[in-house]
Fold this protein.
Amino acid sequence: MVEQIGPLNVAILAVPEATASTIYGMFDLFSSPGRDFLFITSGAAGTPRMRPYVVAGDGSPFRAANGIWMRPDHSLADCPPPDIVCIPDFFVNPGESVAGQYDAEAAWLKR
Protein backbone atom coordinates (compact mmCIF):
# COMPACT_ATOMS: atom_id res chain seq x y z
CA MET A 1 0.00 0.00 0.00
CA VAL A 2 1.29 3.47 -0.90
CA GLU A 3 1.44 5.88 2.01
CA GLN A 4 -0.15 9.25 1.31
CA ILE A 5 1.99 12.24 2.35
CA GLY A 6 -0.79 14.82 2.65
CA PRO A 7 -4.28 15.54 1.46
CA LEU A 8 -4.88 15.21 -2.27
CA ASN A 9 -5.80 18.47 -4.01
CA VAL A 10 -9.11 17.99 -5.80
CA ALA A 11 -10.08 20.71 -8.27
CA ILE A 12 -13.79 20.84 -9.05
CA LEU A 13 -14.11 22.67 -12.35
CA ALA A 14 -17.17 24.92 -12.25
CA VAL A 15 -18.92 26.53 -15.21
CA PRO A 16 -22.17 28.54 -15.25
CA GLU A 17 -23.94 25.65 -16.99
CA ALA A 18 -23.48 23.39 -13.92
CA THR A 19 -25.83 23.38 -10.93
CA ALA A 20 -24.70 24.46 -7.48
CA SER A 21 -25.93 21.19 -5.95
CA THR A 22 -23.70 19.18 -8.28
CA ILE A 23 -20.64 21.32 -7.56
CA TYR A 24 -21.16 21.56 -3.79
CA GLY A 25 -22.23 17.91 -3.61
CA MET A 26 -18.85 16.96 -5.07
CA PHE A 27 -17.18 19.33 -2.61
CA ASP A 28 -18.92 17.54 0.29
CA LEU A 29 -18.09 14.12 -1.16
CA PHE A 30 -14.38 14.89 -1.51
CA SER A 31 -14.26 16.50 1.95
CA SER A 32 -15.31 13.31 3.74
CA PRO A 33 -12.53 10.71 3.11
CA GLY A 34 -10.49 10.19 6.27
CA ARG A 35 -12.69 12.57 8.25
CA ASP A 36 -16.24 11.26 8.42
CA PHE A 37 -15.85 7.51 9.08
CA LEU A 38 -13.92 8.11 12.30
CA PHE A 39 -16.47 10.71 13.34
CA ILE A 40 -19.30 8.23 12.83
CA THR A 41 -17.51 5.37 14.60
CA SER A 42 -15.67 7.21 17.38
CA GLY A 43 -17.22 10.65 17.67
CA ALA A 44 -13.98 12.42 16.70
CA ALA A 45 -13.32 13.62 13.16
CA GLY A 46 -10.32 12.08 11.42
CA THR A 47 -7.71 13.80 9.28
CA PRO A 48 -9.07 14.73 5.84
CA ARG A 49 -7.38 12.86 3.00
CA MET A 50 -8.58 15.22 0.28
CA ARG A 51 -8.61 19.01 -0.07
CA PRO A 52 -11.37 19.99 -2.51
CA TYR A 53 -11.67 23.45 -4.01
CA VAL A 54 -13.84 25.02 -6.69
CA VAL A 55 -12.01 26.50 -9.67
CA ALA A 56 -13.59 28.54 -12.45
CA GLY A 57 -12.51 30.79 -15.32
CA ASP A 58 -11.28 34.06 -13.87
CA GLY A 59 -12.44 33.14 -10.35
CA SER A 60 -15.25 35.70 -10.29
CA PRO A 61 -18.60 34.79 -8.71
CA PHE A 62 -21.26 33.66 -11.17
CA ARG A 63 -24.78 32.29 -11.20
CA ALA A 64 -25.00 28.55 -11.69
CA ALA A 65 -27.54 26.99 -14.06
CA ASN A 66 -30.15 26.89 -11.28
CA GLY A 67 -29.64 30.57 -10.37
CA ILE A 68 -27.58 30.11 -7.21
CA TRP A 69 -24.49 32.28 -6.78
CA MET A 70 -21.20 30.39 -6.94
CA ARG A 71 -18.05 31.83 -5.42
CA PRO A 72 -15.07 29.85 -6.74
CA ASP A 73 -12.07 29.36 -4.47
CA HIS A 74 -9.63 29.89 -7.34
CA SER A 75 -9.33 31.02 -10.93
CA LEU A 76 -7.76 28.81 -13.57
CA ALA A 77 -4.61 30.97 -13.28
CA ASP A 78 -4.16 30.82 -9.49
CA CYS A 79 -5.37 27.29 -8.82
CA PRO A 80 -3.05 25.10 -6.71
CA PRO A 81 -1.74 22.14 -8.72
CA PRO A 82 -4.48 19.50 -8.57
CA ASP A 83 -3.90 15.81 -8.03
CA ILE A 84 -7.43 15.14 -9.27
CA VAL A 85 -9.72 17.21 -11.49
CA CYS A 86 -13.44 16.59 -11.38
CA ILE A 87 -15.73 17.97 -14.08
CA PRO A 88 -19.37 18.02 -12.97
CA ASP A 89 -22.31 17.40 -15.23
CA PHE A 90 -23.55 20.58 -16.88
CA PHE A 91 -26.33 21.67 -19.19
CA VAL A 92 -25.72 22.29 -22.88
CA ASN A 93 -28.31 22.43 -25.63
CA PRO A 94 -27.70 19.40 -27.86
CA GLY A 95 -28.65 21.46 -30.91
CA GLU A 96 -26.17 24.29 -30.30
CA SER A 97 -22.43 24.37 -30.81
CA VAL A 98 -20.18 24.97 -27.79
CA ALA A 99 -17.15 25.59 -30.01
CA GLY A 100 -14.90 28.13 -28.33
CA GLN A 101 -17.03 28.32 -25.19
CA TYR A 102 -14.67 26.27 -23.02
CA ASP A 103 -11.28 27.01 -24.61
CA ALA A 104 -9.74 28.34 -21.37
CA GLU A 105 -10.94 25.31 -19.41
CA ALA A 106 -9.69 22.89 -22.09
CA ALA A 107 -6.27 24.58 -22.13
CA TRP A 108 -6.09 24.42 -18.32
CA LEU A 109 -6.95 20.71 -18.36
CA LYS A 110 -4.17 20.02 -20.88
CA ARG A 111 -1.47 21.58 -18.66
Notes: The chain has one domain: 8-110.
